[in-house]
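Batch job 17 of 40 flagged for manual review because the log was empty.
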Amino acid sequence: MGHQHAEDAQGKDMLEGEFHSMCELYKTAPRFILKPYTWGKLNVSNPDTYYFLCGFIEMTDQAPDSVHLCTKLKELHQLSATSLKKQRGIQAGWNYYIQLGRGAMRLNTEFNGNWKNLEQCVDRLISHVVPQVLGPLESDGRMVKPRLIHGDLWVGNTGTERETGNIYVFDASVHYAHNEMGVAIWRGKFDTVFQKEVYLKTSLSMVDKSEPREQFEDGNKIHSIYHALHESACSGGFKLSTR
C-alpha cells in the first residue's frame, strides 16, 4: 500500500485535500487512479503528523507514453462530463479563471511576501488580457464546458506500472475547469518531460482546440500563469523570479 505523511496544519490540509481529490478522480476514472483508502492523524506524533493511504504499484522510471497518457486524459474529461450533468452551478469560463488567478496570487504573497511588480502584472493580466483572450471562448453563443482536471499534472505525478504498462496519476488537486487548463501546466520549466512538443501535439490530436482556435496559444500561456504562481509559492519565488 502506498502512503504519504505530512506535518502540522498545512500537512493536514494537503493530505485531506489529496484524499478527496483522488476519491473524485477514482470515482470518475478508476483505471487511471490508484485506489484511495483513507487519510487521518497518527495517534502518537510530535509535531502533529497526518497520513494518506492509497494503492501501490511497482513503477518504471520511463517517461509516460504520450498516446497512452492523452487517451486516459480524454477519457477522464469525457466521463466527468457525464457525471457533471447531475450537478449545477459549476463554472469554468474566464470569470472562473480570474478567481483562480487572484487566489494563486494571494497564496504567492502569503508565502513570498509582497512583490509589487508581480502583483501589478497579475492585476493587469486579469483586468486587460484575460477578457480579450479567454473572453471569446464564451462569445457568439459558445460556452466553456467544465471538465474534471487533475490540477497538478506534471511528470512527477504520473507513473507507469512495470507489469502492465498502464499509466496512473496521483497527488491530485482536482477542480472543474476548461479542459485546456489541465495541460497548460506542461509549459512549466520545471517539467522537462511534458514540456516536450509531443505531449501537447498528441493531446490536441485527440481533443481539438476550442474556438477561436487562433487564440489557443495565448490562452495556453495565460492558463499556465496560474500554475506558475503556485510553483512560485512552493519554491520561495526563486524559479519565477529568474525567468
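Reviewer: the log was empty due to a logging misconfiguration, but the result itself is present. Helices lie at 8-28, 66-84, 94-112, 116-133, 179-184, 197-206, 216-234, 238-241. Unflagging and moving on to job 18.
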